[in-house]
Amino acid sequence: MTHYDLAVIGSGSGNTLISPEWADRKVVLVDGGTFGGTCLNVGCIPTKMYVYPAQLAAAAGESSRLGVDLTLDRVRWSDIRDRIFTRIDAISSGGRAYRADELENVTLIEEYVRLTGETSFETASGDLVTADQVVIAAGSRAVLPEIPGISLPQVHTSDTVMRLQDRPRRLLIVGGGYIAAEFAHVFGSFGTDVTIAVRSGGMLRQLDETVSEAFTEHAARQWDLRLDTDVTGITANDDGSVTVRLSGPAGAVDLEVDAVLMAVGRTPNTDRLGASDAGLDLHDDGRLAVDEYQRVLRDGRPVEGLWSLGDVSSAHQLKHVANHEAKIVAHNLLHPEALRASDHRFVPSAVFSHPQAASVGMTEEEALLHAEASGTTIVTAVQHYGSTAYGWAMEDTQGFAKIIAERSTGRILGAHILGHEASMIIQPLIQAMSFGLDARSMARGQYWIHPALTEVVENALLNLALD
Ligand SMILES: Cc1cc2nc3c(=O)[nH]c(=O)nc-3n(C[C@H](O)[C@H](O)[C@H](O)COP(=O)(O)OP(=O)(O)OC[C@H]3O[C@@H](n4cnc5c(N)ncnc54)[C@H](O)[C@@H]3O)c2cc1C
Ligand SMILES: NC(=O)c1ccc[n+]([C@@H]2O[C@H](COP(=O)([O-])OP(=O)(O)OC[C@H]3O[C@@H](n4cnc5c(N)ncnc54)[C@H](O)[C@@H]3O)[C@@H](O)[C@H]2O)c1
């Protein structure tokens, strides 16, 4: 048995906790997977490194209506893949070497572990570790539904699809969320025939309904979108392809593809950690229950010396949320007398698809419930990119910004943008909501650069029918 001052389980966002303040204490960092976790190795970073070249490839199909005839000669999949992972793998191995070899006070255990108590765990090879303080930052993993054929090598998750030897000619994506939308854009723009099977009646259904409906329409124009459709089985064919049995509005249909990407959500890694056996409180979706200081709960009360952050305990499976929670835990570990609370009031997110979707705050549906509960009235404005000068320049026909505010105070409750660079255009609204700037002050109290695309936000704010 070895005892440490601090043990961190998970080298994703957990890795950032080992700051110089711990230099004179014994620390252990544990990770059974690839050093650096999801975002770096198989998540945000490589996906966006694919999305950018996908945007370039897509431009060829879109520019002729502006009078610029581009042709796409070729997409060199293996060159793109190798460029991305040469860069990423070096960052992962450099980070690993720093923790494993360069810091005398830090031990790196490269094994999966299971909790044996509140602040103790056992490694896969049987070593027992105890610590004064333990941080669980064990993330989440892709869900694989129990379907016949799910273990075939042609069936992928986001963990493996980016490293394929060759770009598939035909790809079925199962799911209608973030990962489905982003990979449909990547593979579709590169020339793959993309089919998407969505169990429900639309894509990105967790977003505001106006955005979800518009995105679903754009998706149906770009890809072979099958709504209200389940996958019931996958069988291998002699030529290396697979036949997928789909069950949808037209009954059972067989689809032949070269690869399948399962994108049906991610589950927190609490089961593999044995969190329930250790008596820790879990939400219905399997994530650890924590209080506002990121302390793990047992029977509703914080466990002394046990903390958690990121996907394993967060309602938001987003890297910027994991990073925020890591900063809170980093402070609280060192300042038990002055704990800081995490702030989940205005968590934004963006889907880097085609078009992009970005969102912060309440959907219209949530705002209506809020209005009913608080006795207030809400107002909504939808401003199309095509109504601004920059939108004319782009000949844009799809983009819009939707803003929801409280009528009497102008308090911005939610903002939802679909279209070119939505992930950037939304940032001033995130800032306004975070710092309590009301819609009227935000619209009138500053210059808006003309004719930048941000005028779509300015005009949406001005069009809110406030008191
Ligand atoms: C394809 C994809 C694209 C994404 N794109 C974005 C994006 O654009 N923007 C965004 O904000 N978010 C994005 N995300 C989500 C983001 O990647 C995650 O929210 C974030 O990485 C979670 O960080 P974490 O530190 O909680 O967990 P992780 O980074 O997953 O780290 C957890 C680590 O714990 C290790 N581990 C797990 N169990 C054990 C155990 N029992 N013992 C030892 N080690 C263990 C794992 O091996 C892993 O390395 C994306 C996710 C995916 C899959
Ligand atoms: N840009 C980003 O920030 C980004 C990008 C990718 C992933 N992520 C994070 O990763 C998480 C996981 O992404 P995701 O796309 O896998 O999940 P998701 O929750 O966004 O979407 C899952 C989809 O699968 C469907 N589904 C669920 N179970 C199913 C089943 N058994 N059969 C068929 N369909 C089923 C759901 O209805 C939904 O359409 C996201 O929630 C997000 O937090 C973020």
UniProtKB/TrEMBL annotation:
Its cofactor is FAD. The keyword Flavoprotein applies. Keywords: Disulfide bond, FAD, Flavoprotein, NAD, Nucleotide-binding, Oxidoreductase, Redox-active center. FAD binds at residues 48, 311. Residues 347-460 form the Pyridine nucleotide-disulphide oxidoreductase dimerisation domain. Disulfide bonds join 39-44. NAD(+) binds at residues 175-182, 265. Binds 1 FAD per subunit. GO terms for biological process: 2-oxoglutarate metabolic process. GO terms for molecular function: dihydrolipoyl dehydrogenase (NADH) activity; flavin adenine dinucleotide binding. The active site is at 450 (proton acceptor). Residues 4-325 form the FAD/NAD(P)-binding domain. PANTHER family: DIHYDROLIPOYL DEHYDROGENASE, DISULFIDE OXIDOREDUCTASE. NCBIfam families: PRK07846.1 (NF005884). Belongs to the class-I pyridine nucleotide-disulfide oxidoreductase family. This is Mycothione reductase. It comes from Arthrobacter agilis.
